Amino acid sequence: MELIFRMNIFQSVSEKITKLHRHLNILKVRQPLFYETVKFLLFSTVIILIIAPGLKGLNYRWQWYRLPDYLLLKTKTGISAGPLLKGLSVTLFISVISLCLTVIIGFATALLRLSESITAVFISRVYLELIRNTPLLIQLFLMYFVISPILGIGRLPSAILALSLFEGAYTSEIIRSGIISIERGQWEAAHSLGLPKGLVYRLIILPQAFRQVLPMLASQAISLIKDSALVSTIAIYDLTMRGQVAISETFLTFEIWFTVAAVYLIINIALSQIIMIFERRLKKVDL
Amino acid sequence: MNSKITGDTIISTKNISKTFSRDIKALEKVSLEVKQKEVVVIIGPSGSGKSTLLRCLNGLEEIDEGSITIDNTPLDGHHHNRLKIRTEVGMVFQNFNLFPHMTVGDNIRIGPRHVRKQNQAEADQITDELLKKVGIYDKIDAYPRQLSGGQQQRVAIARALAMNPLIMLFDEPTSALDPEMVGEVLEVMKDLAHEGMTMLVVTHEMGFAREVGDRIIFMDEGKIVEENSIDDFFDNPEEKRSKQFLSKILHNGGC
To answer: How many CB pairs below 8 A link A and B?
Structure first.
């Protein structure tokens, strides 16, 4: 009874907040374009004034014209991917495989932590604490130098494994929070129909939990892509490593780092846009 | 007692006790027998253990002591038995607890499809029939949030009925409803009672109790204080505690 009461309060408060937002949007009158342009120019000038003296001091010779060679290789037979794009394919490969493993590890760990077995809870807790309280870089080195010879796996698999284990720990906490946010009544209704535990999860709990945590899972996926840059430290030729190599050959430090950063930016913005569209589609049918 | 009752005991509990944390005794040595087609109304002040009793009957709460047997299946630690009992016992909750991510139709289909393992055509047929029966066939493709409380509760009843249960448990089915929607839900429940469904109903609706109840159980502090026929309970209660409770709720116009 008390719970409904609280939920009602919560709903009415959130309704009021959305109404308030609508009011604010009505009140928000766009200022004339002229003033906006002046403001923007003033802001830009200040930034340039701060940076410009330093830029002169750098004495950097920009050579953007040399950059295309590192994106696309023009040979006699045609055009093929340059070093940076080759690196991008490695980054994407590592990210996609790690993402799949991350979801599997995350699910398994979340279910272990929620299980009734003390052993399962203990194992998942130890894993979580180890992963979350040590740096990813150290985990990567341990995986590559210590564990991979024991398991007899190569450089790429150990990088993928280290990344998946790291992101999997965070993902499991996200998934767990989604599962425990589902109200007790849903479990009880599902149980009262005689659904076995597996089906309760698959049909009732996980679809609802998934909708709840989708934004957090998305940001975890973005973290994974960014964190994958660390695999360059064990000499995997991903986007970051290719960038480093190209710089050591050409000294195009600025151009290449800007380009590498832009590529990560484009991938991640595209990814979050796709997820946003997906989310909107889910919202249409839900709650 | 009503002549429709055939006499076979379908629910039997013996001395069941349940203690929640911090020594709150929810149930204390409750013994109860319910016969087929009987409609038993359970009343009592809040915290008297009436909801807990219902929830123990389909294994949503585990009992600490005593035994429960439903349709000759003991509700013991065996997982298999518990699932079997849950398929035979339908439950309707105070807060409906519909699955918000599924349409009304899918909410009802889920039991026949995934527990009874019926094919799609059979499940569809049951769903259509039940929605017509509870009078909201036009909402089959709506989502629960688009329905009023009364409509949601009728869907919840249909969902439980789709399992073709032997027994229906109602845990304060009208307590969370706006007053003008109580009637439509009670109508559906009355129809069920007249069709001969075995029902245990925790409610404060005394009019309902008088109209379709065969027996009333008054609980207080985890114990059954009085068990009586409907007429005797209202006109001539045996226990002092029952009299006090009755005078209170009747004064307040039935809670």
So the answer is: 72
Q: Is B101 on the interface with A (CB under 8 A)?
A: yes
Cα angle vertex A145, ends A143, A150, to 5°? 75
- Burial classification of residue A30, based on how many CB atoms lie within 10 Å of its CB (0-12 exposed, 13-18 middle, 19 or more buried): exposed
Rounded Cα gap, residues A154 and A144, in angstroms = 8
Q: Is B58 on the interface with A (CB under 8 A)?
A: yes
CB contact under 8 A, A189 and B99: yes
HEC-encoded secondary structure of A223-245? HHHHHHHHHHHHCCCCHHHHHHH
- Residue whose token pair is 């994974």: A224
Tokens 């595209």 found at:
A270
Q: Which of residues 179-198 of A touch B (CB under 8 A)?
A: 185-186, 188-196
Name the residue with tokens 């949007």: A25
B206: Cα separation from own chain's centroid: 15
Residues 6+ apart with CB under 8 A from A152: none
What residues contact A219, with CB distance under 8 A and at least 6 apart? Answer: A272
Measured CA distances, A224 to A99, A169, A174 (Å): 7, 12, 14
Distance CA B48, CA B53 (A): 10
Beta bridge partners of B220: B223
Tokens of A276: 């946003």
Q: Which of these, B134, B194, B124, B200, lies nearest to B161 by C-alpha position?
A: B134
Let me know if A244 is exposed, middle or buried by CB neighbors in 10 A (0-12, 13-18, 19+): middle
Full pLDDT tens readout for chain B, 255 residues = 445 566 789 999 999 999 987 777 889 999 999 999 999 999 998 888 999 999 999 999 999 999 999 999 999 888 899 999 999 999 999 999 999 999 999 999 999 999 999 999 999 999 999 999 999 999 999 999 999 999 999 999 999 999 999 999 999 999 999 989 999 999 999 999 999 999 999 998 999 999 999 999 999 989 999 999 988 898 888 888 888 888 888 766 544
Distance of alpha carbon A165 from alpha carbon A139, whole angstroms: 9
| Backbone region of residue A108 per phi and psi (left: phi > 0; alpha: psi in -120 to 50; beta: other values) | alpha
Is B166 near chain A, with CB under 8 Å? no
Which of B86, B98, B176 is opposite residue A194, by nearest beta carbon? B86
pTM of the model: 0.80
A196 contact residues in B (CB cutoff 8 A): 83
Tell me the CB-side half-sphere exposure of residue A208, using CA atoms within 13 A: 20
Find tokens 């105070």 and name the residue. Answer: B94
**Whole-angstrom distance, CA of residue B218 vs CA of residue B240:** 12
